[in-house]
Amino acid sequence: MMKSDLRLCYSKLRNEIPSGKISDLSLLIANKTLELPIWEFEFYHIFLPIPGKKEIETEFLLSILQGRDKHVVLPKMEGDTLIHFLLTDNTKIQPNKWNVPEPVDGIGIQPSKIDVVFMPLLAYDKKGNRVGYGKGYYDRFLQQCRPDVIKVGLSLFEAEQQIEDVFEDDIPLDYCITPLKTYSFPVS
């Protein structure tokens, strides 16, 4: 399928999930991340879910990260790019004009410091190609990261066979976690 078709399809599928079930599925996903070989690092980038979009609730994963004394990094949209702030006890979170929860300000973190990125997505395929909302924020962000940054998608659904319109600049995932399965993608 094409990315635009996948966006429509998976947005619809996500909207059909009862709200109470999203929490249960999100907890399963958070617990499955513990099976990944990613826990020796320091800096973990995580998204905060957009209210009303039925995205994965990342507070369970956030609790795991904080319980392991990891440095948690949150994104903030600035123009057509993401900037990144360390989550601290003083971090104030507020929704932006698109209702995306993000830090107001704080201790800035350069993308080159980040070891693991937990990524939002709508769909992905068996090669690790992902489909987001189509604005390219994460593609531009990942280009600023080190080549060895570990990219972990979080999804409520299983992988598509193939995304037909993958671009040369698209950066594939290393892993994708679903409530039922962990996908590991080979380095191409």
TrEMBL record:
Q: Which family does it belong to?
A: Belongs to the 5-formyltetrahydrofolate cyclo-ligase family.
Which E.C. number(s) belong to this protein?
Answer: 6.3.3.2
PANTHER family referenced in this protein's UniProt entry, alphabetically: ATPASE INHIBITOR/5-FORMYLTETRAHYDROFOLATE CYCLO-LIGASE (PTHR23407), CHROMOSOME UNDETERMINED SCAFFOLD_24, WHOLE GENOME SHOTGUN SEQUENCE (PTHR23407:SF11)
Any one Gene Ontology MF annotation carried by this entry is: 5-formyltetrahydrofolate cyclo-ligase activity
Q: Which UniProt keywords apply?
A: ATP-binding, Ligase, Magnesium, Metal-binding, Nucleotide-binding
Q: By what name is this protein known? A: 5-formyltetrahydrofolate cyclo-ligase
Under which main EC class is this enzyme filed? ligase
What Pfam family is a match, any one?
Answer: 5-FTHF_cyc-lig
* Cofactor requirements of the protein: Mg(2+)
Native organism: Maribacter aquimaris
| UniProt-listed SUPFAM superfamilies | NagB/RpiA/CoA transferase-like
* Reactions catalysed: (6S)-5-formyl-5,6,7,8-tetrahydrofolate + ATP = (6R)-5,10-methenyltetrahydrofolate + ADP + phosphate
